[in-house]
Amino acid sequence: MNEAIVLKSTGSWYLVKDITTGKVYDARIRGKFKKDKIRNTNPLAVGDRIQYELEDHDIAWITKIYPRKNYIIRKSVNLSKETHIIASNIDLACIVFTLKHPQTSLGFLNRCLITCEAYQIPVLIVFNKIDLLSETELEELQEIEKIYQNIGYSTLRISALTNLHIEELKNKIKNKISVFIGHSGSGKSSTINALQENLNLKVATISNYNEKGKHTTTFAQMYEWDFGGAIIDIPGIKEFELVDIHKEELQDYFPEILREKVYCKYNNCLHINEPQCAVIEAVKEGRISEKRYSHYLKLMQELK
Ligand code: GDP
Ligand code: ZN
Q1: Which residues surround ligand 2, an ion (CB under 5 A)?
Q2: pLDDT digits over 139-164, tens only?
Q3: Could you tell me if the CB of 187 is within 6 A of ligand 1?
Q4: What is the dotted CATH code of the domain comprising 247-303?
Q5: What pLDDT shows up at residue 215?
Q6: Which of the four, 133, 140, 228, 274, has the lowest number of CB atoms within 10 Å?
Q7: What fold is seen in the domain 71-233?
Q8: How far is the CA of 85 from the centre of ligand 2 (A)?
């Protein structure tokens, strides 16, 4: 039985890599299989695990797709309502945060985190450009780190410029399939370059976000690290789009709220102004960060 992982997907043909031999093949989906099993504009995504049969011309015919442990979707631009799976089986999302140059807002960080929670993708918050920070700014950063560490998120201070903690980062992403997200200019390309100089990745595309959501002809692609594991480059994604989240669901994507809510008096409590709300209590007692809680309230107002 031949098993492979999808390195690239254009919707009509695929690049797959055999997980035992390491050989790379062009791959196709049989028409019948395509029609019967999968109804989607692009049935296979980068990161998918598949089975295949080899035929002449070294073309791998895909015969089976294994269930995905998670995936990232994007709303199709031309067919307004349709969604499109672009990457799957992601082990880690590295969110690159900079206190300055450019300043990453906590709102941005929270939105990325919520999306990762919704997608069930583990997160590492990477604080980059540490070399630029003064003593006072380092203290400010420490406050931010504390907020997110208390929730349970892993964090790491790095500098892509001075190579601070690049080895630690390497150890954290080793043998994993990861994605890097963050504002344009936060240092994603530089960090990837510091991790491995010759990674044949047109990293610039990561931040080439098309603001108007225009159709781009670039596709997600997986690149393997020398030290084990891979990165999925998703052109056009700088922050994950918030998936369709319902008001009642939002609380579940704040791990600290999820922990406390079992103690609320009402089990349909939304933690806004209900009596005997354990979440509000936890905010008062400092177990939940006020900043995070007010962002929760703000998002609750925005959601339908
Ligand atoms: P991207 O848009 O997220 O890929 O960001 P880039 O990697 O292109 O970096 C944007 C700018 O920040 C470049 O001028 C980098 O040289 C600079 N930069 C990246 N990382 C660091 C860092 O750790 N320290 C400093 N001082 N500059 C950095
Ligand atoms: Zn409550």
Answers
A1: 264, 269, 271, 277, 279
A2: 999 999 999 999 999 999 999 999 99
A3: yes
A4: 1.10.40.50
A5: 41
A6: 228
A7: Rossmann fold (3.40.50)
A8: 34
